[in-house]
Design brief:
This protein is mainly α. It has nine helices and no strands.
């Protein structure tokens, strides 16, 4: 009702600039973003330590496109975030993804050096954890600033975009195993089901 009294619905902004994304989610000023990075890095450090003496997984070509998409998205976000420590964290995560996939795909070469590969992955996550802890400390010391109307609208639009992307990812995660485990000839079965 209040929007109608103010003269209608304000026009929706189509593109969010990288500067606006950085201003909203910079871990050096946003404690929630920094806390997320610390929690994620701590989790990955713990799992890296638990997998330290385990053999490498066999190559799975289904995971390869997923890792490529994640690496491309991380590289794009690294460009959006301008602070050195943020880019360092993104670079460490991308390096981890590259080491993980290359060592898995080249299992014959990396097989005898499993311990070295696992130690490298663990060191990358420990570095990421240390950098994200420094960002958390700095964001806790930074005073909170109220968002302007435009920044609040941008944040709402980012949240909506995140929800849409999250629903799409969950749908893909659910559908891929279903398609993978369907019996041979499932296309003909579905065609017969809908044609009758």
């Amino acid at each position: 009702m209040r929007i109608l009294k103010q003269g209608g619905i304000p026009p929706m902004k189509q593109q969010i600039t990288a500067r606006e994304v950085h201003a909203l989610y910079c871990p050096l000023t946003n404690t929630k973003s920094a806390l997320f990075l610390v929690a994620f890095s701590a989790w990955e450090t713990l799992t890296g330590w638990m997998w330290l003496h385990k053999p490498l997984a066999h190559p799975d070509l289904v995971e390869l496109p997923f890792f490529i998409i994640v690496a491309v998205l991380l590289a794009r976000w690294a460009v959006s975030f301008t602070c050195f420590r943020e880019r360092l964290v993104f670079g460490l995560v991308i390096t981890y993804l590259a080491v993980e996939e290359v060592s898995t795909l080249l299992l014959v070469i990396a097989g005898p050096h499993v311990h070295l590969v696992r130690c490298t992955e663990l060191v990358l996550w420990i570095l990421c954890l240390l950098v994200s802890l420094t960002m958390l400390l700095q964001s806790a010391r930074t005073p909170k600033v109220e968002l302007s109307e435009q920044q609040a609208a941008t944040q709402r639009q980012l949240r909506r975009n995140f929800v849409v992307a999250f629903v799409l990812m969950i749908t893909i995660i659910v559908l891929l195993p279903l398609v993978y485990f369907l019996p041979p000839g499932w296309v003909q079965w579905i065609t017969r089901l809908f044609s009758s």
